[in-house]
Amino acid sequence: TTASYYSIRDAHTEEEIIPFDDDYTKMSADADGMYFKLHMKSLQPERYYRLLFKHKNNEGTVVYDNNYHFKIIR
Fold this sequence. Notes:
Blueprint: E1 3-10, E2 16-18, E3 28-30, E4 33-35, E5 48-57, E6 60-71
Antiparallel strand pairs: 1-2, 1-5, 3-4, 5-6
C-alpha cells in the first residue's frame, strides 16, 4: 500500500469517534509490520469500540471492517 489509515467507531452507536484523516490517523510501518499509537485517555471507559482500516494504493482505496472490537476498562 502507499498509505494506510485507521478509524475508531463506537461499537454500539456506530458514531465515528476518530475519523480517517490523511495526517492524524496514518499508520506507521517498521520491519515487523504496520502499527499505530492510540491515546486511550480520549475514549470513555466501559465502552466497546470498533477499528476500521483504509488502504490506498495505485489501484484505488479500500476500507476494511473486520469487526475488530476492543473495550476500554477502568
